[in-house]
Amino acid sequence: MNIKESITKLSGVGAKRAENLATLGIETIEQLLGYYPFRYEDIQERKLAEIQDQEKVTIKGLVVSPAVLSRFGYKKSRLQFRMMQEHDVFAVSFFNQPYLKDKVEVSTEIAVYGKWDAKRKSLTGMKILAPKQEEDFAPIYSVNKAVRQATLIQLIKQGFEHYYDAIEENLPLSLIEKYRLLSRQEAMYAMHFPKDATEHHQAKRRVVFEEFFLFQMQLQQLKQKEKSESNGMAISYDVDALKAFTQQLPFELTGAQKRVTNEICRDLLSPNHMQRLLQGDVGSGKTVVAAIGLYATKTAGFQGALMVPTEILAQQHMESLQQLYEGFDIKVALLTGSTKVKERREILSQLASGEIDVLVGTHALIQEDVNFARLGFVITDEQHRFGVNQRKVLREKGLKPDVLFMTATPIPRTLAITAYGEMDVSIIDELPAGRIPVITRWVKPPQLEKVLEASLEELGKGHQMYVICPLIEESEMLDVQNAVTIFEELQDFYGDRYQVSLLHGKMKNQEKDAIMETFKNNESQILVSTTVIEVGVNVPNATMMIIIDADRFGLAQLHQLRGRVGRGAAASTCILVANPKNDTGKKRMQIMTETTNGFIVSEKDLELRGPGEVFGNRQSGLPEFATADLVADGHILEVAKIEAESILQQKGWEILPDYQPLVNYLGEQKEGQYFD
Ligand code: ADP
Ligand code: MG
């Protein structure tokens, strides 16, 4: 007996039924037994008197009159009978399910799920639940037209009858004991047919742990492999030269910056392959950390690359690096989509000869004809915008360079250790001293007028302001129109008191740059923009931001946008103009006004919208768990991760007896199950 056998081994499963079951993803006994209900019908007896009018309930009772079927019209029918609970008799009717007639036998007990009408003492039935079933917890499966609930239940029962003993444990006994988990057999059975709520809870706890733990075992093994020496290179930088560089910086690094810089430098030195995620809130100072890493790389005789998602950001990084490197012997070049052909050719040849030390650019940087002499270190900023493939191509260009992914969108820890579990994580959790947190307010659209009045005071102090209009992906044209309208209204409002300019996604790069330049130089005081400024723009004199229709943005995006203000010494405000229609929308606006901590924002966003939404489903690399829930079961994930790591740290763990079930199980799994 092997639970990997085909379900056709069960009686009653022929080719046709097997095909139908396959539409639910059930082909083996193991898949059948692991096809858990998505909920349970709690058919604990409910006293009729306690049921609310129009409540959907399951009522158990004795059938006391034969079922009468009346047909009317084409395909329409009504099935009526009476049931009794204790001494109360009530009417039950089913519409358009004539086939249920056979299930209703006088003097038998059945349970009917339906909507209760308290006044008429009648139940409009939706279904009859597993007749003659003893359990109070009836499983409800997600099924389709081809497979019915009853069929599934019958097959699962049959499966357990014949294959219960063939279910092998896959967790080490030590963990089962440590966390008082049910055995795999017990848990699988109880997931379908729990005796009560407590047993169901225990079963689920075991299944969730198992899912997370097995996933982490694979992930951590992958991490070990990726990091292994055969994959990487040692970048032996010049410690003294690096010290000389860091000591002349115009500011003292924060404690967090020092810590992550050390983590990065340690990775560079080591022959292991660096795969590190650097998370740091907007304005936490990641650029200088990148600059230090790139400088270190140069002193070791390697080249570095800094990739960013937009041209504006590339230019800005280029300027920042040039400033930071002033007086130091390091050659930085900028390569983007709009680099002129001749200049481009020049840069390419200097890259190939090793003359250029650091290349900054958009993903134009990974085009085929870009070749480095000795690429040692690659940094991508705002990495969530980079596709996995782009990163891969880049990595393959050089000599397996160390890679640092920087992101200002804090990823909730549970997601980070799942989606980026194969990476090490560094966190800058401290802002440079002297920053004043941005004050955020939420107002309804009619109050915009007042907000604009208030802006006069801020502008009067010589400060500048952003006005952000949302971007609806389906219609860029409409967004532009929308932005243009707002731009014109603001021009009317401010008249010749202040200069308003407009930036949107349909503009040519040169045009955008020119407008950014005017804003930077304070030649215009108000910048109306679609989200093109989302990432990275640095104009410390801008102290106010108005975000129109703020509820159309994700929280992470709002947080990013808000990060454009509060970058100087003066206090800043961010006004969210929104009229959200539902509670979630309102809560989201509320959260923004309550915290400026990006990690809290992202945790809350995760709670409200779920991992898929927060993370942008598909390309995220986030695995889908069958039973486990990244939000609700986060604490179990933490434990599973720690246990997986501690097993892998034991030398020769594969041959220890306690881990044999695990080794066998992992070995049987298709390779790359989670990671292809
Ligand atoms: P981000 O993490 O959002 O990329 P930046 O690297 O752009 O942040 O830094 C934001 C601003 O803070 C820059 O103007 C930078 O010069 C400044 N900065 C960075 N580190 C420090 C520090 N330790 N002390 C003071 N200012 C700093
Ligand atoms: Mg940055």
TrEMBL record:
SMART domains, sorted: DEXDc, HELICc
A biological process (GO) of this protein is: DNA recombination
Keyword annotations of the record: ATP-binding, DNA damage, DNA recombination, DNA repair, DNA-binding, Helicase, Hydrolase, Isomerase, Nucleotide-binding
Keyword flag Nucleotide-binding: yes
Q: Where is the Helicase C-terminal domain?
A: 447-612
Q: Which EC number applies?
A: 5.6.2.4
What reaction does this catalyse? Couples ATP hydrolysis with the unwinding of duplex DNA by translocating in the 3'-5' direction; ATP + H2O = ADP + phosphate + H(+)
Q: Where is the Helicase ATP-binding domain?
A: 267-428
Q: So what family is this one in?
A: Belongs to the helicase family. RecG subfamily.
Q: What is this protein called?
A: ATP-dependent DNA helicase RecG
Give the source species. Enterococcus alcedinis
